[in-house]
Amino acid sequence: MAVKNNKKGSSTLIEVGTLIKGEIIFDNELFIMGEVEGDLNSDSDLAKLIVSKTGKVQGEIRVPNVVINGTIVGNVRASENLEISGTAKIFGDLHYSTIEIKGGSLITGRLVAEPIMLDSEEKEIASEEAKDGA
After folding, report:
1. Per-10-residue mean pLDDT for the chain, 134 residues long?
2. How many C-beta atoms lie closer than 10 Å to residue 88's C-beta?
3. Which of 14, 58, 74, 91 shows a CA-CA span of 20 to 30 A to 107?
4. 73 forms bridges with which residues in the sheet?
5. First and final CA of the chain: distance in angstroms?
6. What 3-state class would DSSP assign to 47?
7. What are phi and psi of 16, to 5 degrees?
8. DSSP per residue, the chain
């Protein structure tokens, strides 16, 4: 069963003591303080997943922006930004464009840097800077 939240500007909270089983698809912000057994997915560039210190996710995560303070058992694909706090415990591979890791976190898996997608204007600026530097 998939649950979908696409109300603009909304946030969804999964509270401590709550267990959700199944895929969650969302477009905005998802804050997990409880537990999720299933995949978390979003294609929206604005989507953000925040797993609190008490939060636990068992499943694959495919969300552009991810902040992990709790426990993840599964691979994470953050196409934009991945932030890992000192309380995070991650058992899986991390795919990211940009990453911030705080001391004290536990990561059992691979760190995989993904290419950053530039729009045409950014590509032009990068190309000019490369020419100037050469």
Report:
1. 56 96 96 98 94 98 98 97 98 97 96 77 68 66
2. 21
3. 14
4. 58, 91
5. 54
6. coil
7. -55, 140
8. -EEEE--TT-EEEE-TT-EEESEEEESSEEEESSEEES-EE---TT-EEEE-TT-EEES-EE-SEEEESSEEES-EEEEEEEEE-TT-EEES-EEEEEEEE-TT-EEES-EEEPPPPP-HHHHHHHHHHHHHH-
**Which pTM does this prediction carry?**
0.81
Cα 38 to the center of its chain, rounded Å: 15
With 0-12 CB in 10 A as exposed, 13-18 as middle and 19+ as buried, what is 129? exposed
pLDDT of the residue at 1: 47
What's the DSSP call for residue 109?
S
